[in-house]
Amino acid sequence: MIRADLIRIGRALSAAQEVVADYTPGEIESVLKAGGDPLTEADLAVNKVLETMLPEAGEGWLSEETADDANRLKCSRVWVVDPIDGTREFIQGIPEWCISVGLVEDGRAMAGGILNPATAELILGGQGEGVTLNRHPVNAPQTSDIRGALVLASRSEVKRGEWDPFFKEPISIRNVGSVAYKLGLVAAGLANATWTLVPKNEWDVAAGAALVLAGGGVVMYPDGSPAVFNQSNPLLTGFVAVGSSLADPAMDLIRRVSSTDDGQTAI
User: Fold this and answer.
1) What's the rounded Cα separation, in Å, for the pair 86 and 185?
2) Which of 130, 126, 124 is nearest to 100 (CA)?
3) Which parts of the chain fold into alpha helices (H)?
4) Cα Rg for the chain, rounded, in angstroms?
5) pLDDT for position 52
6) What is the 3-state secondary structure (H, E, C) of 169-205?
7) 237, 257, 3: which is closest to 128 by C-alpha?
8) Rounded to two decimals, what is the model's pTM?
9) Residues of the chain with CATH 3.30.540.10
């Protein structure tokens, strides 16, 4: 079943790529949504294509660019989509945005696809099927040593100073825009970990989480419990995504860095 789902995801991403090719990153107008996030015509056009191609009878739908329908909560299988994750980067012409498609089954991220048209990277993966980068199988690096690990950080969080304590640690930090793209890079073995300790929406995370899990990695909330999707409130408290052998060292680092002066953990 997952293999058939991945074929469907691949076809939908291919169709979405054709649509987004009509728009030029860095040269597209945008408006601000009620919450202050930017929106472009490309977001809506891609959303329409994905919504047409992905859900079948009995399957739910959750997308950043579609009004939420509570009927999804009654569905075992739900598509969780961000038509363009990293819209700010797309508007600015920074090649760190992607089309993100995740399939959730009974709360678990089971299959996902992330396409970055700017870098020509297609990452697909699902439970029992592993992960591919541009159709070639890839394996995430297996290390238990946090020293020197490449950790992908949110550019906006770095600007706000939220990563300042981590820059004092023996890890290598790289700023990347899109949440989904960061997760995809971890799943593809191009980075060791990514995390955010502030809330993120399910559509930012579900596809990339499925990829990390498909590659044998771990995706959890900042408190260490497994991430669960298709919740009534699709706002996650944050997440940590990392290869399984690095999970404990990463969580130890996060807890230590996040500790307050009185020794109580902030997460």
Assistant:
1) 14
2) 124
3) 2-20, 41-53, 87-92, 155-159, 179-187, 202-214, 247-257
4) 17
5) 98
6) CCCEEEEECCHHHHHHHHHCCCCCEEEECCCEEHHHH
7) 3
8) 0.95
9) 2-137
Q: Which residues pair with 112 in a beta bridge?
A: 102, 125
Provide the terminal-to-terminal Cα distance of the chain, rounded to the nearest Å.
Answer: 37
Task: Please give the Cα distance from 237 to 129 (Å, whole number).
Answer: 28
Question: Which residues of the chain does CATH 3.40.190.80 include?
Answer: 150-257
150-257 has which fold?
A: D-Maltodextrin-Binding Protein; domain 2 (3.40.190)
Q: Which CATH class is domain 2-137?
A: alpha beta
Give the β-pairing of 172-176 and 150-154: parallel
Q: How confident is the model at residue 139 (pLDDT cuts 50, 70, 90)?
A: confident
Q: Strands 136-138 and 130-133, how do they pair? A: antiparallel
Tokens found for residue 182: 């960061």
The one-letter amino acid at 185: L
User: Residues 107-133: what's their mean pLDDT?
Assistant: 98
In the chain, the amino acid numbered 10 is: G
So what's the pLDDT on residue 143?
A: 84
Which amino acid belongs to residue 114? I
DSSP state, residue 35:
T
**Residues 6+ positions from 11 with CB-CB distance below 8 Å:** 53
Quote the tokens at residue 190: 């191009």
Locus of tokens 């870098």: 119
- Using alpha carbons, select from 33, 15, 129, 134 the residue that is nearest to residue 83: 15
Predicted confidence (pLDDT) per residue in 53-93, tens digit: 999 999 999 999 999 999 999 999 999 999 999 999 999 99
Pairing of strands 121-126, 130-133: antiparallel
